[in-house]
Amino acid sequence: MKTLLSITCLVCLATAVGSAAAQSPTGPPLPLAKNSCAACHGEEFLWAGENQRLYVPLESLADDVHWKNGVSCHDCHGGDPGSTDFRQAHAVEAGAGPGASQPFRSHLGGAGRTTGKVEDLLQACGKCHAESKDAYSASVHGHGLEHSGLLVTAVCTDCHGSHGILAASDPRSTLHRSNVSATCSQCHRFIDERLQASVHGAEYAGVSSGESAAEATTDLGESDAPPQEKPSCIDCHKGHDLPHPASEAFRLGLPDRCGGCHADLTNTYAASLHGKLTDLGYAPAAMCSDCHGAHDILPVESQESRLSPVHRRDTCGQCHPGANENFLEFAPHADPSDPDRDPLLYWVNMGLTGMLATVFILFGLHSLLWLIRSSHHVAREGRPESLQPGGRAYLRFRPVHRVAHGVLMTSFLGLALTGLPLRFHSAQWAQFISWFLGGFSSTGLWHRIFGIANFCCLIFYVFWFAGLLISKPPAGTTRKEVLFGPDSPTPNVRDFTDFAKMVRWFFGLGPKPTFERWTYWEKFDLWAASCDIVLIGTTGLILWFPNEFCEFLPGQALNIAGLIHGKLALLATGFVFAIHFFSANLRPEKFPMDMSILTGLTSMEEMEEERPEMMQRLAESGQLEEYLTTTPSGWRLNLPRAAGFVALSAGLLLLIAIILAAL
After folding, report:
1. N or C: where does the chain have the smaller number of CB atoms within 10 Å of the terminal CB?
2. Residue 253: is it exposed, middle or buried by C-beta count within 10 angstroms (0-12/13-18/19+)?
3. Is the pTM of this model over 0.70?
């Protein structure tokens, strides 16, 4: 039989090629009429049984992308399609002419797949498609072959075909949108069955993959929405860019893959905690498929859907064990900018945004006027001498208050460093900080630790203030005088008059005002910080222990708590790093830094210029000498100064980053 086949082939070769000169494997392709390969392999009657695989219909080459672009048989298989010699045409003899430079390769034909045949195929395709070969090697299919030795894994010809390869845009192509599901299902049959029964599948909607959903539902009425095709496998798995579905790279890319069709849902996802964590590279965060499913997605209204009331607890419970009924009311795609969808959340957002804008406008204007007037004043009058080693100083803050402020300063900076990346999750600096600090697993833990430290500072000041009220008033005074007196941080009438005098001074309508123990802006800072700790801390606890709080709060409380927590945290960090830093350190009288809260000391010249009423009151009561001391030298002064500069620099850098991210 083989002898007869060889004789028949030789006759065909002689008839087809005649006196044509042998073609080099690297030369231009011969027309089919003169191609010795086509002369035999294009005749169906020559091939039967197991040799049927060697039959290549000539009409399949007419639109073949390789044939049309100058690729001929020998470029993949070797041999010489221009030779009439059987052996030279197949290049089976060493030294059989030009064709011998590429020994004949049958690739995956014959006795099935072998390692050598598969590697031979990849090398042949990789000669021209190097980038695709590299992408394949990095894909789940390539890993299955090269790292696990799975010969059944898909290779080039399983998806693209071997002969008669068509462009993916051609409806006849195995990779056309309408056919790719059938192509992939050759290996992934059960996945395809689930897909076809899902909202993305043909069976569910009654349309085929690639057919316009609008065209298939014209009997349901006209739609203003643009026609949208059903997704195909490559919309999500991206052809050669095919990491393992369980890999971190694939999970982190899911929102973008789904966002190609679901842009509105992707936007609300990106604004949620899950989306922010994904932006920061935290792969365990809930992705689209974790909640909706992958190949088996059904409408939420369906009882079989993972998000139906029947199954929602199990779905949420994958990440939130013990989720109760109230917790299940949480809206993961909440949109605070849509009054129709989330009216309560919308008005809370509007109120917080209005408050944030009002605070920054008013205090920003206050600081700007202060900067202008103070610069003029210092230029003309100079400024009081700051702390000098060995000089006389006034003890303004005792050690316990300095320690409390140190804890407050450290915990606040820690909260900003670990919290701001979540707020500005798409900014490169935020992603770098998150990575540098160890990712969300680490920053989440530290954020809670710093939050607890912040709470401890508030508790300390509550007890300190309570001590002022509970302790016996000094002789000749009442509790009311203690509560609203000059040594109390409680706002009083003088604060309003001091503010009015300050505004007059800004505009040159009066002298520069002097103050008592506490200025109006220091009191505002104290009470604003206390309120922030209460509100931000409480909402933080709700987000930390959602199941416990949802025992008595509705699930929407989690959405509101997240909104309040984020907005007020932004207000607090922006206010401290811009407004507080200016009033306490960066104004011309104090620039570059006020050392009083770090060392506890203020120079006598500063006290006499800024707070003469306080100095006079203490002198008249005979208490002044108790507060007078000498400024230390060496490390006792330089160490607090260094710590202050580190904190100040960190805050200003974060402020710049916030502004850049907001632009």
Report:
1. C
2. middle
3. yes
Which of 47, 49, 93, 99 has its CA nearest to residue 73? 99
CA dist., res. 252 & res. 255, Å (int): 7
| Length of the chain measured in residues | 663
CA distance 152 to 114: 10
3-state secondary structure of 602: strand
164-174: per-residue pLDDT in tens? 899 988 899 99
Alpha-carbon distance 446 to 422, whole Å? Answer: 13
List, for residues 15-30, the tens digit of each pLDDT value: 444 433 334 344 456 6
Inter-axis angle of helices 635-662 and 399-423, nearest 10:
20
Q: What is the pLDDT of residues 114-153, one digit of tens each?
A: 888 888 888 889 889 999 888 888 888 988 888 888 888 8
Reduced DSSP (H G I as helix, E B as strand, rest coil) percent helix, strand, coil of the chain, to 5: 60, 0, 40
Apex 512 CA angle, 508 and 515, nearest 5: 145
Contacts of residue 643, Cβ cutoff 8 Å, sequence gap at least 6 = 406, 598
For 480-531, how does the pLDDT look when each residue is reduced to its tens digit (9 = 90+)?
888 888 989 999 999 999 999 999 999 999 999 999 999 999 999 999 999 9
Which residues 6+ apart lie within 8 Å of 205 measured at CB?
199, 213, 216, 217, 230
Q: What domains can you pick out in the chain, each with its CATH number?
A: 1-105 (no CATH), 390-662 (1.20.950.20)
* Nearest CA among 338, 413, 419, 407 for reference residue 581: 413
The pLDDT of residue 430 is above 90: yes
